[in-house]
Amino acid sequence: MTTINSLTELSSAPADPTIVWLAVDDLNGTDESKKVRIDKVPTVFALTIEGTSVLSTGEGGGTKYLREDGDNSSSWQTITISTDIGGLGTNVATFLGTPSSANLIAAVNDETGTGALVFSNSPTLVTPALGTPSGGVLTNCTGLPVAGIATFTSSALAGRCSDETGTGVLVFGTTPTIATANLTGVSKHGSYQNQATETTLTPAGTTQTMTCNTCNHQTLALTSATGTVTFTLTVPTNVCSGTIIIKQHATVTKDLTWALSSGTIKWMGGEPDWGADAISSIRLVAWRWDGTNMYLAPTEVAS
Q1: Looking at the predicted structure, is the pLDDT value of residue 301 above 90?
Q2: CA 112, 116, 121, 122 torsion-angle sign
């Protein structure tokens, strides 16, 4: 069989343009004895100059590739990622062959954390360090540690409450300082029995009001009164009791007329004749409010 080494143009165009010549074993195409007419080539030697198809013999499915075997021949072979594909990073081929979370983390070299691959819908994260998130909703979160709560002031706490009462600073149980508290629903007797100071009321004219909620033990000093003083007791919110010291004028004895903001006054043993007391004299009046009646129990003038 003659080997076709090259195809060249003839030195001159053929007389019959329908006939194509091949120069066989002749690079220059000048040796007329080596020219072969294509129209005389047997059909078994039909040639396709471009677009030659390489067909598989007995291989189907489209899963194999033609590969040289290193012995001047080729064969159809299956490509294996782990052995036939080069240039991949460490453990990447393993992940491509078996795509698990463990193999992915082995193939990545700058990951953070361990465990399974996480997707956005309902993942379960175990002790993640989230840093400072830009946002989030903690409606269903539990177990917030007290140490994790930022410090805040009493004013800031009050600002987050919508139903608080009163103002000022947060109060704890041991020796708090409470200004003008209205303790609804509790007796004030225990609260004030060791009060630090006593309120002294000094009417400059002829009227004076004493609020029994303000303090349980108070003094009415008549030293500046100009006549008979109408002394009105504003009854407590709840049942409680207390005492009142009455100090007479230093030069002219003043009389008293007692009144209540509501309810009825009941004297225990009768009301004293205040105008008959000596100048600068002192009496003690104990009072007890039961929600309807104000019971007043005067003592004798102190000696």
Answers
A1: yes
A2: negative
